[in-house]
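Researcher: Next sequence.
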Amino acid sequence: MIMNTLNIAGKSYSSRLLVGTGKYKDFNESRAAIDASGAEIVTVAIRRTNIGQNAGEPSLLDYLPPEEFTYLPNTAGCYSADDAVRTLRLARELLDGHKLVKLEVLGDPNTLYPNVIETIKAAEVLVKDGFDVMVYTSDDPIIAKQLEEVGCCAVMPLASLIGSGMGILNPWNLQIIIENAKVPVLVDAGVGTASDAAIAMELGCAGILMNTAIAGANNPILMASAMKKAVEAGREAFLAGRMAKKLYSATPSSPTSGLIT
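Model: Next structure:
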């Protein structure tokens, strides 16, 4: 299979699908779905999931050991740069100096659209503080480039609003971001089903991060398997290079010479 590897902050991964750990009925279902997805990087909301900060309660670390998965602590629920920075510093302590993080600073609780001004402020602090920052942002090519220039190791524009399942609403902006980036560009938010994932990868995305599309499916484990295949198929299609689109210029798929007459 022609997948090559996803390189993030100096480390290589065979899977280009990154998955969340929330919204499942329990940690057992989380583990089963993540196994089916083939994901090696799992993101966890520090404010909502126990990874050791709540002593005596079940910990995600027991079900998804850090020896088996790369953790990506995120700042879900943060609405200011200060809150985001504080949350990720806590994550670093809980995970013994872990540096790879997902930064998201939200603008409002209804749309969960990113506050790009606060996001840039937080990214500047975190990069200077030694974090490897994968950053959730809007699909604005200018903001995406600024976040790259700040030093983020990956830029992750939304395809549509978090949890909406609306798919890729603006492929043109995503393509501009991808073409101008020197760091990996991953779609984060909005993927609803396998075809959305395939389209994102066909555009040239380095990978996809998703949670609700899997956890919110009627059968999360089966959907996780579907998403794995979709990401792989989309990547192969991108590398293969699709045929040109031709308006009113049909071409027979079989030879036209040597026909039986």
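Model: Residues 221 and 230 are 14 Å apart (CA to CA). The mean pLDDT is 89.
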